[in-house]
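Appendix B. Extra example for self-study. Work through it before the problem class; the solution is given directly after the inputs so you can check yourself.
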Amino acid sequence: MSALDRRLKSTSGFYKNYVKRSYEDAHCAKAEKRPVAWVASTFPVETLQAMDIVPVWPENYASVCAARQVSVELCELAEREGFSRDLCSYSRCVLGSIFGSEKELPEGGLPRPDFLVATTSACDTHMKWFQVASRVYKVPFFVLDTPYNIGGGESEHLDKSHIDYYESQLSDLFDFLEKQTGAKFDRYKLSQTLALSSWTSRLWTEIQDLRRNIPCPMDARDAFSAVFFMLCLPGSQVAVDFYTQLRDELRQRVKEGIGVVENERFRLVWDNLPLWYNLRIFEYLNSLGAVVVAEVFSHTWTGTLDPDRPYESLARKYLPNMANSTIQRRVNIVLDLVKDFHVNGVILPTNWGCRMMSVGETIVKDAVYKKLGVQSLILDVDSSDWRVAGEAQVKERLATFLETLNR
Amino acid sequence: MEALQPFRKTLSDRHEAAKKWKSRNRPVVGWTCTYTPEEVIYAADALPVMVWGSLGETNLADAYMPSNSCSFARSCFNAALRGDYDYLEGFVESTSCDNREKTYDMWVNYSKVPNIYLINTPHMNTEQAHRFFHQEVVKFKEWMERTFKTQISDDSLNYAVGEYNKNRDFLRKIYDLKSKKPPVISGTEYLEIALAGLVMPKSEHNALMSRFLGEVEQRSDLPHDGLRLLVSGSVVDNTELVKLIESVGGTVVADDWCTGSRYFWNNVDLGSKDLLEAIARRYLNKVPSSFMYNREERFKHVKELAKRFDVDGVVMFVIKYCDTHMFDAPLLRDELKAMGLPVLYLEWEHSMSGFAGLKTRIEAFIEMVGGVK
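Solution. Structure tokens for the complete assembly:
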């Protein structure tokens, strides 16, 4: 079976059919004067969906710019305005795009927001970056201040005061959204969105579980595309439809024993983000008989939402997010993945402009080796700024790592 | 000036006061963020000391923390790995920024300190945030009591807040000596006084400052009257930069550091019925650090300082890799320039590596501003 035949049918054309479409929809909404909001990840986006607000994701846009090989020149535009080269490359790239580029921007650029929403959950950068954007556009900005999940607990073991603080801000949020849009908050619509979001999560979990099979039916490249719905549009029918189709295809692949590669020699876990500007690196791994069978990123966004307790369940979904927790939570996720997915190596990419992703990888590496005897590779890169590490160097390190696993 | 010597001595033997305190069987608790409610530690008859790094390489820490992590946090962690802080019985970290959250992980996993606590610090000062932080301060008090097997009484809390407020009052008075023309003390001297207070008991620090204030107006050895500068930055734990500026013709008359003016600008309301609530409120309402949402208040503070201290220029000095200050920098720079102030923007490693290059840039800036003046 050729490599081409091994490619999944349901993810072919994903970018054009879904991601590109989402930007077209947002531009269209803007033209029709429907409300458009910029959102940062870990924000409970279901609240916007329930108010018919079109969410636009600058982080996703940065990854699009990286894939189109324009992220670095946009970063440089922000750097020229005084934003440090050591800041998050997503933020530099997007700020660069709004400071103005002479070239045509991918997908016509980000639509101008009517307002912005973010949390303090994943990182400091979300709030600081959106503060800059809010000033540039002179539009309001709502911040959901999120307590840090210190115990690293999962949703059933959260501190009551954390949930209370989060919930109290959700009611402020709905007041804010009503004021911004002139629309009324509709409890029934919220319930529907939460139900869809839970369904999306369940399907995504099933999809990930299918990747435990040997050979693994789906690679990181597809996962990093398909996770788009989990992050950006969880409470939507289109997400449910797509994930159902993908799950069914994977089931069939597993039944027929068709894997990503013909001879699967290495099963890897990939932490943090991919190199958006070089997703072919996963094909390079494939060419060496290695398949990324699980990404920590793909195991971060799920959660069950209870339409009868909407605020509380949103708190319980978003508070324990790995990015909002002590390193122990990431360690536990990686340990589980290594065990459950029959993994023999872990790739821990850092991200130059991101402290949350970069600091603590030694702790993960040590824990995985001590507990399970599995080796990890800390790879110094950046998700969107290729000036940080050259392709040859990255390939060389990956190949050397696989050789060590071979011994 | 004689009254300065005890501060200098404290700084040069920065662990001495803590070790002396500990020798009387009382615990020493380290902290790193100026949003740590130190009053609560002090009220438990424990000595709060700020954990600092040191200039130079951080080889030990580099094995665990990547080169793109906060160079101040890395330097502090390096000191811990070197054993400088083995005397600590407690270490308190704050969720104020990503780097600090990560520092907590590092200390928990690799340091020898037996008791480590992380305080959840909101990034806003809304009423809900105040309520939340109040509960966090209560929890922290309970942790102190449990960990060090003690009770924090209302009286001891009252005493601690009293000493801390007095400390802030003294610091403000001393700070203001630089508003005079020529300034009565140099920026280096002021910083020596202020930093010493972060590693010694406040009661002793207060006594020293009281003595200093009694003598300073009569001093005959006035410092060099240089170009009046404000330094805006993230954190400072040593006097190197200010010394450097003052060695090439500047005088640092005002600052915007978390361990500088932001540390003592606001007091706790001692008249409050619930002191823990008042403590929590004081911290969220103080001149904000850059991780707080209300950044305009910090900008306002800096601009007011620039006017009140009649500065000729501003040096913005951001320690790598402090995201929140880096994000604020372009806007703050523009606002200061709009006031007609020349601004030098520097991003530098805490280690001060490349010192010669730093000196050249500061010298050139001072020459340029001085020439125009």
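Self-check: DSSP finds 16 helices and eight strands in chain B. If your reasoning did not lead you there, revisit section 3.
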